[in-house]
Amino acid sequence: MAPKLTAVAACCLAFLAARSALAAISPSDADILNFAMNLECLEAEYYSTAINGYGLNSSTLGGGPQATGGLKANLSPDLIRITTELANDEINHVADLRAHLGSAAVPCPTMDIGSSFTQIINKALGIDGFFPYNTDTNFLLGAFLFEDVGVTAFHGAIPQVTQKANLELLAGIAPVEAYHAAILRTLLYQKGLDMVVPYNIRVFDFVQGLSNLRGKAGDGKDQGIVAPPADGRNTSYPFANLIPQDGTGKVFKRTPDEVLAIVYGGNSTEPGAWYPMGMNGAINGSVATS
Ligand SMILES: *[C@@H]1O[C@H](CO)[C@@H](O)[C@H](O)[C@H]1NC(C)=O
Ligand SMILES: *[C@@H]1O[C@H](CO)[C@@H](O)[C@H](O)[C@H]1NC(C)=O
Ligand SMILES: *[C@@H]1O[C@H](CO)[C@@H](O)[C@H](O)[C@H]1NC(C)=O
Ligand SMILES: *[C@@H]1O[C@H](CO)[C@@H](O)[C@H](O)[C@H]1NC(C)=O
């Protein structure tokens, strides 16, 4: 009997090993902080490039490359002032996360903040040539695409963190991202009936197209900036839905894989869009993450 039992054990250990290779990894605090930092690197590059013409420096990038494709944006004086504040927050977030991580910090990843938007928006709305740095509206639409993703990523990440100091840090950053998203959503709502030039699509509908695309990659957890017609609010100027939430007053929560699917342009295992080489750190889509 003994040899047979050994054979059974060998079979089943091999089976378990294979299963655990397929099972999702549970990330450490450092993995989660690095994941958040990859998102913050993108946000910091987008805003600071738009106002300065250049993004993070070698020290804040942790040795990673500057994002490509971004330009100093053609923004109104008001939006320049608002964007300056957003940029400072995001640069500080990268620095805060990097300081907490110490030697565990990964460099900011390779990022595309130009043609990536053209591609994503083509996928969402079937239009060509969209560029985020041309006008106030385009710039807000570009920022809208990633800010809500950051907010939902923080809701997903925070309950996974174990150390109090890390929790404290993420709990301080997450509401700032929510403020940012709310500012963008409000500014877009106020422009809701404008047409996005030259596409002849209302801002309301443009935003809805972007939200639908994110919803597809992220398990339906998304909402545009107008209340649904089901509420009986189908008027020529619809009621606002400035806070995307689950119906119980809480923002949606996305898993790392749902976040990666959006920021990679559709598939969490295939780097692309904003992160052409994938994110740096253990949460990068090469292994599923719980
Ligand atoms: C990089 O940028 C940060 C944040 O703006 C600043 O504090 C730091 O002095 C800069 N470092 C270099 C080497 O320019
Ligand atoms: C709003 O109502 C009009 C008239 O009933 C209808 O034609 C239109 O499809 C509705 N729009 C939406 C987005 O449901
Ligand atoms: C993502 O890409 C992988 C590898 O190319 C593929 O097996 C998988 O079906 C794709 N998933 C989705 C949701 O498209
Ligand atoms: C991607 O994640 C895997 C699995 O967690 C890890 O082994 C690999 O080093 C990561 N790649 C990068 C570039 O960080």
UniProtKB/TrEMBL annotation:
Domain of life, per lineage: Eukaryota
Tagged with keyword Signal: yes
Keywords from the UniProt entry: Signal
Family matches, as InterPro entries: Ferritin-like_SF, Pigment-catalase-like
Signal peptide region: 1-23
CDD domains in the cross-refs: Ferritin_like
Any one Pfam family match given in the protein's UniProt record, by short name: Ferritin_2
UniProt xrefs under PANTHER family: DESICCATION-LIKE PROTEIN, OS05G0151100 PROTEIN
Protein name: Desiccation-related protein PCC13-62
